[in-house]
Design a protein that fits this description.
By secondary structure, this protein is α+β, with helices and mostly antiparallel strands. The protein has 13 helices and four strands. It folds into two domains: 75 residues, Glutaredoxin, CATH 3.40.30.10; 164 residues, Up-down Bundle (Glutathione S-transferase Yfyf (Class Pi), Chain A, domain 2), CATH 1.20.1050. Helices cover 54% and strands 7% of the residues. The chain has a four-stranded mixed sheet, with helices on one face. Bound molecules: glutathione.
């Protein structure tokens, strides 16, 4: 039975899982959910992922949810080809520490510029009652949506999010320096690289790549990631926000 993937093209968490599936050469059946239309809140999907977020996979009839858990699950279930976790227990613990940091810091912080710059115009078209009903229907992101409201996050929150993203770049530079690169853990591409990859792609998509312009080791890391054969099939047409939202096209010029 092929793996079934529920995801969204532009979703950073989904991009992690697509990359791992391609790295393993696994056949999968892809279901694309429209997150702005609320497909992730449909009862049939909530039965798979009660958190109402993507991605989720179903393997042998059993759902596995949360992108970090899915990545580890896939690497454990299909270690070859391309093992994405280091063999020693201490290195594995180090990789997981990086992944926790990435989930807690950049993966959360990136939502603030993403929503303010890309999604807000869509929410501003809703009536106040429609927006509140949409926000309140989200099991995981209700408070986040209500905090953003229809005017967006204030400058203070944008600045704090960009600060957390900048500190992530600094931490990546430390990891590359101590491992010798080209990847975060040295010669081996691991789940830690795949975990942080979509944040840098998103920052570049939002024209915020100045955050690492003074950090050549991170620029080199990013160029190396883009050269991986899994990168292009992961980022198929429509995976970038500038490809989906016409008002963002100007950011590219
Ligand atoms: N910790 C979860 C977070 C998943 C998540 O936030 N997914 C976003 C897309 S990247 C989503 O589905 N958002 C839909 C919504 O907010 O309604 C994971 O890593 O899978």
């Amino acid at each position: 039975m092929p793996i079934v993937l529920y995801n969204a093209p532009q979703s950073t968490c989904s991009q992690r899982v697509r990359f791992v599936l391609h790295a393993k050469g696994l056949a999968f059946e892809e279901h694309k959910l429209n997150l702005l239309e609320g497909d992730q809140l449909a009862p049939a999907y909530l039965a798979i992922n009660p958190n109402g977020v993507v991605p989720a996979i179903v393997h042998d009839g059993v759902p596995v949810i949360d992108s970090s858990v899915i990545m580890e699950y896939l690497d454990e279930a299909f270690p070859e080809p391309n093992p994405l976790r280091p063999p020693s227990l201490t290195a594995l613990a180090h990789m997981r520490t990086m992944m926790r940091f990435i989930d807690e810091m950049p993966a959360a912080a990136i939502r603030v510029p993403t929503f303010n710059i890309a999604f807000l115009p869509r929410f501003q078209k809703m009536s106040a009652a429609e927006f509140i009903a949409f926000a309140e229907s989200k099991p995981l992101r209700k408070e986040f949506m209500l905090a953003m409201g229809q005017t967006g996050f204030p400058k203070k929150e944008m600045d704090e999010a960009l600060g957390r993203l900048r500190r992530t770049v600094d931490r990546m530079a430390d990891w590359i320096a101590s491992s010798g690169g080209p990847f975060l853990m040295g010669d081996q591409l691991t789940l830690a690289d795949i975990s942080v990859m979509p944040t840098l792609v998103r920052l570049e998509d939002l024209n915020l790549d100045h955050l690492w312009q003074d950090t050549p080791s991170v620029s080199r890391w990013f160029a190396t990631i883009k050269q991986q054969p899994q990168f292009a099939p992961t980022y198929y047409e429509g995976s970038l926000l500038t490809e989906q939202f016409p008002h963002l096209a100007a950011l590219r010029t």
